[in-house]
From TrEMBL:
Family: Belongs to the eIF-5A family.
Superkingdom classification of source: Eukaryota
Pfam families: eIF-5a, IF5A-like_N
Coiled-coil region: none
Protein name per Swiss-Prot or TrEMBL: Eukaryotic translation initiation factor 5A
PROSITE patterns documented for this protein: IF5A_HYPUSINE
Function: Translation factor that promotes translation elongation and termination, particularly upon ribosome stalling at specific amino acid sequence contexts. Binds between the exit (E) and peptidyl (P) site of the ribosome and promotes rescue of stalled ribosome: specifically required for efficient translation of polyproline-containing peptides as well as other motifs that stall the ribosome. Acts as ribosome quality control (RQC) cofactor by joining the RQC complex to facilitate peptidyl transfer during CAT tailing step.
Gene3D superfamilies the UniProt entry points to: 2.30.30.30, Nucleic acid-binding proteins
Post-translational modification: eIF-5A seems to be the only eukaryotic protein to have a hypusine residue which is a post-translational modification of a lysine by the addition of a butylamino group.
Organism the protein comes from: Limulus polyphemus (Atlantic horseshoe crab)
Gene: LOC106465824
Translation initiation factor 5A C-terminal domain sequence ranges: 83-151
Keyword field: Elongation factor, Hypusine, Protein biosynthesis
Amino acid sequence: MDDDTVFSQASAGASATYPAQCSSLRKNGFVMLKNRPCKIMEMSTSKTGKHGHAKVHLVGIDIFTNKKYEDLCPSTHNIDVPNVSRSDFMLVDISDDGFVSIMNDNGDTRDDLRVPEGELGQKIRDDFEKDSSVIVTVLSAVGEEAIVASKLATN
């Protein structure tokens, strides 16, 4: 390999999740419950019982489907935490089949995400019809991506 070899993209080889001790998790943080990335809504720790382990009761909402999941985990055990990233994109267009065309700060565009269902999707469509400068927030975790929020851009 010569010194002038150029790498187009480098990856740290990061995993989609990392382990964390159950007792170190906090409300509004993220955790994997039933193999789904969830935001922790409720958390309670029980006292140590006859067999010596305090248990952490976790209640979370799936960050992509809004489905509720619960789990019980000994406080000293490790549980997977998803690597969640949040990015803002400028909404360029909404196609007839429900896909959005979005652009990041570098000017790169992508067309692989759908307008979300329900109120958020309707709000994005309405804002885009009224004002062409709409910013959407995309959440990515464990190989999934979804639009989770939108706002009007301030010039």
